[in-house]
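chain below, 367 aa
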Amino acid sequence: MTVVFAGGGTGGHLYPAIAIADALRPRATIAFIGSADRLETTIVPKAGYPLHTICAHALPRRLSFDLLRAVAHNVKGTLQSLALLAAARPDLVVATGGYVCFPVALAARIRQLVGLSRAPIVLLEPNLAPGVTTRLLAPMVDEIWGECGGFARRLRAKCRPTGVPVRSSLRSLPSREAAASRLGLDPAKPVLLAIGGSQGARTINNALVAALQRNALPRSWQVLALTGVTEYEKVCAAVRASSDAATTPFVVRPYLDEMGDAYAVADLVVARAGASTLGELAALAKPSILVPYPFATEAHQAANAARFEAGGAALVINDQQLASGALPAVLAEATAPQRLATLASNARRLAQNDPLAQILARIDTLV
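prediction:
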């Protein structure tokens, strides 16, 4: 069996695809199609899969000169995708998010229509609110996996609410002691894990540093901050300059390709509300404080976070509140022992019944 995955731009688009690819690796030939200047050029090869790059452009939300450029780029990307799919002859095409999916899924559909392929096309949408590309592609795919919220009634017959698959490396975490040793943390003290996502989150980084400088972080806790590459040096300098850094251990890393150690030590997580991150938090029953990215398309992170807040699995704070100094008060609430235990218990309830197993069953049915 040959499976082609299309997607990229963020870890939220790539890691669910890699979770599926890892499960299929023993019995399938896997290839990825993405952009040449986005995160997939790093993540996909490190995961051990070939990456083919095409031309693609985000679709503008209003008429402008940028629309002509987007059309030209995506036409070229569709032609490139037609050539790549003709060479690969996939048995299944899985589009996992990001604008690069559009030319690939369109090319796969064209091959179906002209009788050159019988490979099913599947759209994996982990967000509750589907984005522009997802809504455009939904009518031309055979099935939709993921959260399956926000689609028109005529498309719901295609939906299979599988949930978000989690990478195998996170399904069995290392021991807390071993992970703490590798990260330079004390395994006996609770850990606040701050995740900015694959691109980092400046507002979260600034709020953590401000709380450290004001001596306002929870007493006896440690911090593991994944700052993103662009913010790393700035945060390191601020931590070194803080007089409280000696009493509040504050470990800074730009990024971790494998999150197993970080999750193994985390007692509370501060993060953006990307669907992949939330799938991991639910699967691992990690209590969280969520800060939705305010510029996410279709406000999909706000919708993701609202689901966790309604389920009692997270506290939600917006960027403006965070920048205004609200983090210490929210941390004080979340780290109260009973509150922390309740958040963790409710996070576990939000976890779907093994999304990866459900997706593998759908693949066996389709192919």
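The chain has 15 helices and 13 strands. The chain has a mean pLDDT of 90.
thats it, cya
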